[in-house]
Design a protein that fits this description.
Blueprint (H helix, E strand, L loop, with lengths): L3 E5 L15 E4 L10 H21 L2 H11 L9 H15 L2 E2 L8 E4 L6 E2 L31 E4 H5 L10 E3 L4 H4 L5 E7 L8 E7 L11 H4 L7 H4 L19 H9 L18 H4 L4 H6 L1 H15 L2 E3 L3 H5 L3 E3 L9
Parallel strand pairs: 1-8, 2-3, 2-4, 4-9
Antiparallel strand pairs: 5-6, 6-7, 8-9, 10-11
Helix pairs in contact: 1-3, 1-8, 1-11, 2-11, 8-11
Bound molecules: zinc ion.
Zinc ion (ZN) binds next to loops.
GO molecular function: metallopeptidase activity
Keywords: Signal
Protein name: Lysine-specific metallo-endopeptidase domain-containing protein
Length: about 325
């Protein structure tokens, strides 16, 4: 459902919006329609990260168990300080992310166009310099022939005239991921190139169809469905290619978005093939080093941290916990969603 693609941009931004704390994200209009749950989902992904940080700081018994399964370290012991601090730092960065109203003010764009924005560059596009003196792509070069589509350009950006002031959004080689891989739910595309005051690089998180129209995108919504009981009806082990109607915590857009946000250059997590980067049953058996690098371990930590607020936790029995079974808990985390 995900893949991490990196591309280079040749231009740096000229326009420097004011930035408080945290990476600013923008929900593109393609994600905003009547029944869209994208906005709620991104907010919940950020909340999952915030709750991870808060609970790692209090080290309550349930989060200690969660950390043991997700990152293989006992945070009540001093020897676990280093892995815990690494994880906390990434979750803090994601938890600090803020929504902004305009694309120009953002570093991360959440977009639901099913990759329609990618077009071959116009035939008459010439080499030019941006306002910082950076050379923009020379489309006459063999490697950048418009006709072969090896470099695609963001048609919306071309149309709205921000080419001079925005980093170019270029897509080299990978074309349209949503179209090419039918089962993919979303993916992160990073535009490298340092952007002063903005973290290390801009990125798009593209939510492909039909996942952008999922009826239930958040835990908050899932927990209020009549006759649905998360403890009775689901486990953490499930297919990541579930249709968008699947009623499972791992099929939630918020969970998948948290996974994607760890791929941002500032956090730099990867999908570690050891042997499979996705899914509870795989991530709990990785080496410590792989766990710290693997995106899904962070997503599961966030999911379980927030589940605690709904008084749900991992099963106390080790075998059942490894099977992803959940139970109710009376533990009061001092926070109710
Ligand atoms: Zn990934």
């Amino acid at each position: 459902m995900v893949s991490f693609l990196s591309f280079a941009v040749l231009a740096y931004t000229f326009f420097i919006p004011c930035l408080a704390d945290g990476l600013p994200y923008y929900v593109h209009p393609t994600c905003v329609h009547n029944d869209s749950g994208v906005q709620e989902a991104i907010e919940e992904a950020v909340l999952m990260a915030q709750r991870s940080v808060a609970r790692l700081d209090t080290k309550d018994p349930d989060i200690r168990k969660v950390f043991w399964y997700t990152f293989g370290a006992d945070i009540s012991r001093r020897t676990s300080n280093i892995p815990m601090r690494k994880v906390r730092k990434i979750m803090k960065g994601i938890g600090d992310m803020k929504g902004v109203e305009t694309m120009q003010d953002s570093v991360v764009r959440i977009i639901c166009d099913h990759d329609k924005r990618w077009k071959p560059p116009p035939e008459d596009m010439k080499l030019q310099k941006d306002k910082l003196g950076n050379d923009l792509p020379d489309w006459s070069q063999d490697s950048l022939k418009p006709s072969d589509e090896r470099a695609l350009i963001d048609a919306e950006q071309l149309k709205d005239g921000t080419l001079d002031t925005e980093p170019w959004r270029l897509n080299f080689g990978h074309k349209r991921v949503c179209h090419e891989r039918g089962s993919i739910a979303m993916y992160t595309l990073t535009y490298h190139g340092s952007i002063p005051k903005f973290g290390k690089g801009r990125a798009d998180v593209t939510i492909c169809s039909p996942f952008d129209r999922a009826p239930v995108t958040t835990l908050r919504k899932l927990m209020t469905i009549p006759d649905f009981d998360i403890v009775r009806d689901t486990t953490l082990v499930g297919s990541r290619d579930s249709p968008p109607t699947a009623m499972a915590p791992t099929a939630l857009m918020s969970f998948m978005l948290l996974h994607e946000l760890t791929h941002l250059v500032d956090f730099d997590r990867e999908d570690v093939p050891e042997p499979d980067p996705y899914g509870w049953q795989h991530i709990i058996h990785m080496s410590l080093e792989s766990r710290l690098l693997n995106a899904d371990n962070y997503a599961f930590l966030g999911l379980l941290a927030l589940l605690g607020d709904y008084r749900v936790k991992l099963d106390g029995d080790q075998r059942r916990a490894k099977g992803g079974y959940l139970v109710n808990t009376d533990y009061d985390f001092g926070f109710r969603p």
